[in-house]
């Protein structure tokens, strides 16, 4: 599904340069579940944002199937994201003035064959919070709305940045089951940034980042 | 340090009531480290916000030493927080228009005997990010700025909502050492909401929430 070659990302703040990605080559196959691990600041979110079409590299190439993302305009990237990618952000990015249900609806309205918002929120056990606004939800509940929003569009690709970071272990297991089901039933390719060992264990592969590069890429024998 | 009696919190949204805290009795002793655990939505952040003076209960009482927080005005609560409490929020709450250093400075300027901002940020290994704005920091880096900001004021009380949620295990250990040092050197009383087993293990006590009540309160034999 994805192929990156020499993917490089440099952030410039004033005259300081941060080399967030230093030539990353990563292949992700159709319907694979890949766990992305690594220390804080090692480049994981930067990589995910680029393959998700939310940001552009400073150098190198990234392909989604035959589509070279680096050749797309801003409008092209928006179309690519809308038609293919479900994204769970590290900071949830819910719209504060919309309820949980409306936040999911915003995304399903534009999708070709979406779940109903109520269905998606039920998968993450939030049927009793449909009309709450983000400020009226606990941290873990906000994270679950973000997950429901991403899976509701039945995307080809699910990119999750720390999907269980704010969740206790039981609720985290619930979310992992939702992700596994989407992968099994829809063939959704999943890339998940995590510090959670059980997410890492569910993946086909574990890719470790260090200081902007891939330090190791190990196939999970048990899957 | 803290004593709550029948602490109750009901949120009303329209005609729906959420009973977030259902009569909580909790005592926290001077210089104790207490870990607060429990499922998503079980009331942990609600409890922490009330003892931290960020919110008020619907019923019941909460004392900080001899001070009854429920008798304070908004201005009184602000003074209480400023003079006594370092708070690490579940969503970091950094000011987007200020750099890492300035975010910490904002808090140390008002404190009686603070660390220098650079010192606090060095404790959490962010000396090379002093002039970055929150949007230019990774998730874990933002969380670490929030921690530096809370400990820099050398508070009597440190209240942390998921202080290592966005951190890999090594960086998480670094943060735990910062918290332990503040507790050991300053006698700071610490209450930490966490899903992280190593934080729970470092506490004097482990208090478990379930559906707005305390389900168990266990002293940690090893400490
Ligand atoms: N401002 C609010 N208005 C309405 N309901 C609220 C509000 N804040 C929280 N709640 C509800 O109160 C319950 C307890 O919330 P709280 O944030 O204390 O849980 P928590 O234990 O911190 O959860 P998490 O582990 O997910 O952060 C949740 O079910 C939430 O939906
Ligand atoms: N917009 C930006 N401007 C400047 N520097 C940035 C920006 N975004 C990220 N960085 C820097 O790039 C590095 C990599 O950031 P990235 O968010 O990819 O890390 P990460 O692996 O996701 O970390 P975490 O586990 O803490 O979320 C970090 O050191 C960060 O300070
Ligand atoms: Mg990140
Ligand atoms: Mg919470």
Summarize the structure.
Two copies of one chain form a homodimer. The first copy, chain A, is built from seven helices and ten strands.
What are its keywords?
binds adenosine-5'-triphosphate; 223 residues; 4-stranded antiparallel sheet; 10 strands; alpha/beta; binds magnesium ion; homodimer; 6-stranded mixed sheet
What is the terminal-to-terminal distance of chain A? 19 Å
Radius of gyration of chain A from the CA trace?
Answer: 17 Å
The largest sheet of chain A is: 6 strands, mixed
Query: Helix fraction of chain A?
Result: 25-40%
How many beta-strand runs of chain A? 10
Mean pLDDT of chain A: 94
Number of helices of chain A: 7
Spans of at least 5 consecutive residues with low confidence of chain A: none
Bound molecules: adenosine-5'-triphosphate, magnesium ion
Shape of chain A: globular
Instruction: Specify which chain pair forms the largest interface.
Output: A-B, 33 and 33 residues
What is the strand arrangement across the widest sheet of chain A? Answer: 6-7-8-3-9-10
Strand content of chain A: 25-35%
Order of helices and strands of chain A: EEEHEEHEHHHEHEHEE
**Secondary structure category of chain A:** alpha/beta
Oligomeric state of the chains in view: homodimer
